[in-house]
Design goal:
The structure holds two protein chains of two kinds.
Chain A: H1 3-13, E1 18-21, E2 26-30, H2 32-44, E3 52-60, E4 64-72, E5 79-87, E6 92-94, H3 103-114, E7 117-119
Parallel strand pairs in A: 2-5, 6-7
Antiparallel strand pairs in A: 1-2, 3-4, 4-5
Chain B: H1 2-12, E1 14-19, E2 22-23, E3 28-29, E4 31-37, E5 40-47, H2 55-59, H3 64-71, H4 79-93, H5 100-128, H6 132-153, E6 162-163, E7 166-167, H7 175-198, H8 201-207, H9 215-220, H10 225-229, H11 237-240, H12 261-283, E8 304-312, E9 315-323, E10 331-335, H13 337-343, H14 345-349, H15 354-364, H16 368-372
Helix pairs in contact in B: 3-4, 4-5, 5-6, 5-12, 5-15, 6-7, 7-12, 12-15
Chain lengths: ~150, ~375
């Protein structure tokens, strides 16, 4: 599938998404409310078949927080990058861990480091840091001295 | 009589047991909370973070040359491959084409590291199942590769041999000869591994049909590397997204469809043979030329996003860099294979005995610093 066909198919699934061609992969930005349905479509569509989530990254963009999903199809080996940005005060993104199971751990990691709430996640707890840890270390305004006890 | 009643009660009641963080079979500081009914595992809940060093945060205040040395300490048995991911990402961002010589040497080093890593996995897998002899055999042979590494790179475990633009130093004059000697030696020795463990009836009883995973599930869990390929998930980055000199060599992607512990075991054994094939094709054909291109002392990546995938010994390793044009990255993410593989551990072990958990964990071959980062 050429890049243009890929872009057309994704636009058909979610008309509100902005799609641009990056240097390496196709980047798709989508609103959190639309993300879950698009994710389902990307996995279930026969011609796209994005069944392998190979990376999930939480990012602090300054004004917003966001999550970047790297998806690959194991049948066609094409790759797409999905970006979902959310509000900084009340960051909420629907979970996709029922679509790609590996996301359960990766979303917990993003929650741990950036405080992004993945709604409907079955077990959203910190995964690396202590439960008592205060703040989210990968946010740019994190106070490095916040957890120094001695 | 009383004893029987107590045992029966223990079988019906679900109990929680803490395994680790100091347990020999977790190969590091990983803590598993097990829910057990008698001997049967109902649920496994991994608790990570005992060796979490906040590397992704550290990278935000480091230069790219410094970051190379951090990546060694993720999966220390795939140090070369982890270095390669960062180097390739930086080279791609700056549009630098490294000399052919560098590509070939990097390929050979990666494959040597893969063999060394699989040897160590084989020793510890055998030891976990009670075959202590394996441990001595595997370490004896791994030592030969470490000697080769030491001669060229100066260190044995975490080499930091690659740098953006090429290599830290040229190969040692003895390198080619020593590698050829090793391949000759190891081709003779590898059948001994099979005789000792692969066909061993105790090992087969404990591995065949244990910890099964279907291809669809393996893809969904992002289980890559030999673990994923044991389930028939064709996930070899070297094949699908070639880097280094992998598009110039002939090798097979080892795939098995059974999806059990034994399949994951056999994939690794066959991968050692494939790695030797790759090295043999390249070792006499290292092109002449420079071992590095000249780089500016301060590397600034142009604004943008860069992603590089490589095949580490345990699966797909990825580096995701967001750059704002500064000398250090705005955000850097390490996609570590072990973290995704660990997410499948619960699904693999449910309904098996607690002793099978050790075998399954051994077949996943996790390295804890890579999970915790």
């Amino acid at each position: 599938m050429t890049n243009q066909e890929l872009k057309d198919s994704i636009a058909k699934l979610e008309p509100t998404a902005t799609i641009e061609e990056g240097k390496q992969y196709i980047n798709v930005s989508v609103a959190p409310q639309k993300w879950y349905n698009l994710a389902k479509g990307l996995k279930e569509s026969k011609e796209l078949a994005f069944d392998y989530l190979f990376n999930l990254t939480g990012v602090d963009y300054g004004d917003t927080l966001g999550v970047v999903y790297h998806l690959e199809s194991t049948t066609y080996h094409h790759v797409v990058v999905i970006k979902v940005a959310t509000d900084r005060q009340n960051p909420q993104i629907p979970t996709i861990c029922d679509i790609w199971k590996t996301a359960e751990f990766h979303e917990r990691e993003a929650f741990d480091f950036l405080g992004i709430n993945f709604t409907n996640h079955p077990d959203l707890r910190r995964i690396f840091l202590d439960e008592e840890w205060s703040g989210y270390p990968l946010r740019k305004d994190y106070d490095n001295a916040a957890n120094v006890k001695f | 009589m009383n004893e029987e009643i107590i045992l029966k009660e223990a079988d019906e009641q679900e109990i929680s047991i803490n395994m680790g963080p100091q347990h020999p079979s977790t190969h590091g500081v990983l803590r598993l909370v097990l829910s057990l009914k008698g001997e049967m595992v109902q649920k496994v809940e991994p608790h990570c973070g005992y060796i979490h060093r906040g590397m992704e945060k550290m990278t935000e205040s480091m230069t790219y040359q410094q970051i190379i040395h951090l990546t060694d300490r993720l999966d220390y048995l795939s140090a070369h491959m982890n270095n390669a991911a960062v180097c390739l990402a930086v080279e791609k961002a700056l549009d630098i084409e490294v000399p052919e010589r560098v590509k070939v040497i990097r390929t050979i080093m990666d494959e040597l590291a893969r063999i060394a890593s699989h040897q160590l996995w084989w020793c510890s897998f055998g030891m976990d199942l009670g075959g202590l002899t394996c441990f001595f055999y595997g370490l004896r042979d791994r030592e030969k590769i470490l000697d080769i590494f030491e001669e060229t790179t100066g260190s044995r475990l975490i080499q930091s041999y690659y740098c953006p633009g090429g290599l830290m130093a040229d190969i040692h004059p003895n390198f080619q000869q020593k590698v050829k000697e090793f391949i000759k030696y190891f081709r003779k020795i590898l059948p001994e591994y099979d005789e000792l463990l692969s066909g061993n009836i105790i090992m087969m009883e404990r591995a065949k049909g244990i910890g099964k995973m279907s291809k669809e599930e393996a893809i969904s869990f992002g289980m890559t590397g030999p673990s994923g390929r044991g389930s028939g998930f064709s996930c070899d980055v070297r094949k699908h997204h070639p880097y280094h000199a992998y598009d110039k060599v002939k090798f097979n992607e080892v795939l098995r469809t059974e999806g059990d512990t034994y399949a994951r075991y056999m994939v690794r054994m066959d991968e050692m043979r494939e790695s030797m094939n790759i090295i043999e094709q390249l070792i006499d054909n290292i092109p002449d030329g420079d071992f590095a291109v000249k780089m500016k002392p301060i590397i600034k990546l142009p604004e943008g996003e860069y992603y590089q995938r490589v095949e580490a010994a345990r699966g797909e390793f990825g580096v995701y860099i967001i750059s704002k044009g500064e000398k250090n990255p705005y955000r850097m993410k390490f996609r570590s294979p072990n973290f995704s593989n660990l997410s499948a551990l619960d699904a693999l072990t449910r309904g098996h005995k607690i002793a099978d958990l050790i075998a399954i964990g051994g077949s996943l071959d996790y390295v804890i610093p890579d999970i915790d980062r």
